Amino acid sequence: MSNKNDRFHQLMDQLELEGILLTSFENIRYLTGFSGSNALVYVTRQDTFLWTDQRYEIQSQQQSPQCKIDISREAIKQFNAKKIKETLTGKVGFESDSLTVSEFDFYKSAAGSVEWIPLGNEILQIRAVKTSEEIVLLKEAIRRADCAFSKVLPYVKEGISEVELKVELEYLMAKEGHEGAAFGTIVAFGERAALPHAIPTARKLKRGEMALIDFGLNYEGYMSDMTRTIKFGPIANEESTIFDLTLNALEASIDAVASGVKLSDLDEIHRSLFRKAGVEKYSLRGLGHGVGLQIHEYPRVVEKGPGALEENMVFTIEPGLYFPDRYGVRIEDIVLVDSSGCEVLTQTPREICLG
């Protein structure tokens, strides 16, 4: 906890702030551990204030005992206005990306003479470098996802529909214990795998085609994310070649991960392989993204993207190729940047042949 507070204190020193007002669910949970749906948090160099309503009186005390908690016993909007007026002074940072115009106008009116400093990427960059406690939770989320996936493979049979396989996988994830799916599970067979974010349908699996499955679970607030493209029965030579190319792109990218590597340089590794094979136009813009309390976080490994890898960043590597109305392949692992390069956290085999 102190490690996270120190990061916010350093940001306050850097920007000469009196405090930072947190309004988004993810940033509040990151700093305080509180997972209720209605709260404001104000952090200063001395204290962290948490304001919420009566529904969360016990929960806030259990999850955030280190905070100065105040519980609303009146209309929450009036309560928040009063606390902001009483507590905020000087230069205050705020989450400019998570507030509507009307919400910001409300806080601005309540605070009076406060000077508001917008914070965008600064907090995302704080969260990008994981603490040891966060890494433990992410590893457990990934372990449980791996386990659920291994148990769903017997259901991958001719005639099962995309929706049916999605339901089975989400049930198995629930049995592993989690707070819910990290995002809408993607199951796409055959030509529908060319849709990178396909919504599962009644389309049934046939022999001789590939099945793309992209899923994750939420364990104590932390997300896993994995994609596997299963070969179901003998597949065409072209599809097999594209699968091997995608797998090579994943492995080459993982081999290049190290602290200090530019994000754009890492993205270029898979792009150059696709370019040499003449299929770059069938790929997407990015290679991967950070994971944590949100399924898409910093760092963003994209073409010409700014920034570089740092030790203890956790992110996906997910090269993919998508041929409209024909087929698609994506293979995705999560890696942790460490002192020797990286640790691959996803343990499920990358090449799976069934049927």
Automatic annotation (TrEMBL):
UniProt xrefs under InterPro entries: Creatin/AminoP/Spt16_N, Creatinase/aminopeptidase-like, Creatinase_N, Pept_M24, Peptidase_M24B
According to the entry, every stretch annotated as the Creatinase N-terminal domain falls at 6-129
Q: Where is the Peptidase M24 domain?
A: 138-338
Record SUPFAM superfamilies: Creatinase/aminopeptidase
Say which domain of life the source belongs to: Bacteria
Instruction: Kindly provide the name given to this protein in its UniProt entry.
Output: Peptidase M24
Organism (species) = Planococcus donghaensis MPA1U2
